[in-house]
Amino acid sequence: MTATTIARPTGPTPGAEHRPRLVRTAGLVALITARELFRRRGAIALALLLPLTFYLARIDAHWTALRLLSIGLGWAAATLALFTTVSSRSAASGASPTALVLGRHTAVLVLGWTISALYTVLVELTIGDDLAHPGAVPLMLLLTVTVSAPFGSLAAVLVPRDLEGALLLLAAMALQLLVDPAAGWTRVLPLWSTRELSSYVVEELGTQADGYLWRGLAHGAGFAVGLTALTWLLGARRLRVIHLPEPR
After folding, report:
1. Considering the entire predicted model, what is its pTM?
2. Of 73, 85, 159, 152, which Cα lies nearest the Cα of 117?
3. The dihedral of CA 123, 185, 187, 173: what is its sign?
4. Nearest CA to 122 among 73, 183, 179, 190?
């Protein structure tokens, strides 16, 4: 008696086909977004010069200089995310809302992280020898950009017009600078982690140093994940496909 062999399809599963397509589409959207960003030369110059101006203005006070640098960098990254718009041709060509949001977010993050790396070198060259933990400077700046980029994207979703969105971001960042960061309620602000990490970088905190570091990392990571998820949900809802009824 011969056993019967049942042949199973060897082609890729639908899920396996969907994942590479999503990655390719998101990469294409990221490339389009990067090109749009570099067309805004004024915005790129602002992203580079604004944090530098803040930093140099208070370089004599290291804690304040680093906090101003981080907030200025965060505002620049959030504003770039706000002004970044994906071409309508990307949506019309079949790109999913997830690919659109992921691609745009990736482009802004890569640019922001690059600027963070440049400022890390500047800080190390200027005041690095006077800091308690200079090795944490890139961590602070990278985390600031990682939180600020989805914050700017969220502002773009909530306030579709550029001017109103920019004013909203300006108000939020100004609030970060004006309030007493030691107040408990300030933890609801997206860049509260900057205060903890800048204290860790600058001051000799003794046995409390690890507490400042982990509080800052936990707060920043939580806001980055939460803001990114909220941006994706709202963006996917706004960019969802609407099926029109067939004409009779």
Report:
1. 0.82
2. 73
3. negative
4. 73
